[in-house]
Amino acid sequence: MQHIKGFEAFLRDTVNLSQAKLDLLATRVEAIYNALKADPELGLLVLGKKPQGSWAQRTIVNPVGDSEFDADFMLHLAEVVEWADSPKTYIDKVYAALHRHSVYGGMPHTRKCRCIQLSYANSMHVDIVPYLHLADGREVIVNRDDNRWEQTNPAGFTAWMQKKDGIADGNLRKVIRLMKYLRNHRKSFLGTRSIILTTLLGGCIDETKAVSEPGCYGNVPTALLTIVEDLDAWLQNRPDKPSIADPSGSGLTFDHRWDQATYSYFRDRIHTHARQIREAYDEPDYDRSVRLWRNLFGDSFPDLPRPTASVTPTTAKFTTPLVITTTSRTGRAG
Q1: Long-range pairs, 62-66, Cβ under 8 A, ≥24
Q2: Is there a contact between 73 and 29 (Cβ–Cβ < 8 Å)?
Q3: Taking the CB of residue 176, how many other CB atoms lie within 10 A of it?
Q4: Where do the domains of the chain lie?
Q5: pLDDT tens per residue, range 5-45
C-alpha cells in the first residue's frame, strides 16, 4: 500500500529541514555576505551571491541527531587580472576577510579545496564558494589544492533539476530527500555524494514514460517506487563504475567523487531498497504494509491509524531504462 498521508507526515515532520532552520540559514548567509561586501579589501570585488547544492535544489534534509547541518552559497567575485595564474588567491582573500572581521574572525573558519567553511557552534556550518565569470566566457570555481579553475554551470544544473522535477509532478525532490534520509539516518550507501545521488535519481525521470504510463510519478510513494526501480535496473546492468556526466551540460563528470568500492556498495544497497520498496508498496494488508515501510525508513515513519474507508493497493511495474550521458572529463558543478 502507498500510505500517501504517512509519507506526507514523514517528510514534513522528520525528513525536511524545518522552515525555522531554513530561515536561520538565509539570515546567516545574508549577514556573511554583507560582512564580505563591507570589507575594505575584498568588498569591491563582491558582485553577488546565490545558494548552491542541496540548498539551491531544495533537497536539504534534517541532520542526524544533534549534528550540524550545512549549506553552500556561491560568492560571485570580479576577476582580478593579476591573480590569473593563482586561482587559489580568491579563496585566500575571502578567508582573510573573514579572519579580520570582528565577529567571524572569532568563529571557527578554515580553507577547504573549493570553499571557505565558517562554523556556528552546535548548529550549522556554511561553505562559501568563490565563483567567477572569466573574461574568456567560462564560469568557474576554484580548486585550491591544485591551484586551478574548475568549470561549472550552476544555472544549467538548476534548470535541469526544475525540468526533471516538473516531469515527476513535483515529486523528484521529495524522493531525493527520502533517499538522503536513508543514506544519512539509516546509514545506507554511505560514501555516495549528494551530487551523484541527485544526478542519478534525476536521470531516471523519463518524459516518455510519464506520458505512456500516466501516474508513474503521481505521488511520493509511487514516484519513489518508479525512480528507485528504474535506477536499480540501470545499475544492475553496470557492474563497473559508470561515468556520471554533469547534467548541466558543462562537459564535465563527477567520476572523481567516488571509486569502484563505493559504487559497488551503492549498487548493492539500491538493489535491496528497490525490493523493500516494492514489497511495502504491493503489500495489501494495511498494518503489514506500514511495518514494511517502517522497516525501511525506521520508527520515525508514522504508524498512522487504519483508515475507515477501504484502501485499494496500487501495483505498477516500471522498467524503462535510465539514460545518462557520459563523457571523459572530470570536474565539479552545482
Answers
A1: 62/14, 62/15, 62/16, 62/17, 62/18, 62/21, 63/184, 64/184, 64/185, 66/122
A2: yes
A3: 25
A4: 4-14+156-297, 17-152
A5: 999 999 999 999 999 999 999 999 999 999 999 999 999 99
Q: Is the pLDDT of residue 334 over 50?
A: no
Region for residue 169 given its phi and psi (left: phi exceeds 0; alpha: psi -120 to 50; beta: otherwise): left
**Cα distance between residue 93 and residue 89, in whole Å:** 6
Beta bridge partners of 50: 74
- The phi, psi pair for 51, rounded to 5°, reads -65, 155
How far is Cα of residue 208 from the mean position of the Cα atoms in its chain? 25
Helices (H) and strands (E) in the chain, counts: 11, 7
Q: At 195, which amino acid appears?
A: I
Residue 46, H or E segment: strand 46-52
- Beta bridge partners, 245, equal 253
C-alpha cell of 304? 498512522
Rounded to 5°, angle at Cα 290 from 286 and 293: 140
CA 243 to centroid of chain Cα atoms: 18
42-69 tens-digit pLDDT: 999 999 999 999 999 999 999 998 888 8
- Cβ pair 215, 168 in contact under 8 A: no
- Cβ atoms 114, 59 nearer than 8 A: no
Residue type, 156: G
CATH architecture of 17-152: 2-Layer Sandwich (3.30)
CB within 8 A of 238, min separation 6: which ones?
267
3-state secondary structure of 187: coil
Residue 282 CA to residue 305 CA, distance in Å, equals 19
User: What cell was used for 70?
Assistant: 550545512
Q: Are 250 and 331 in contact (CB under 8 A)?
A: yes
Question: What are the tens digits of pLDDT across the range 252-292?
Answer: 899 999 999 999 999 999 999 999 999 999 999 999 999 99
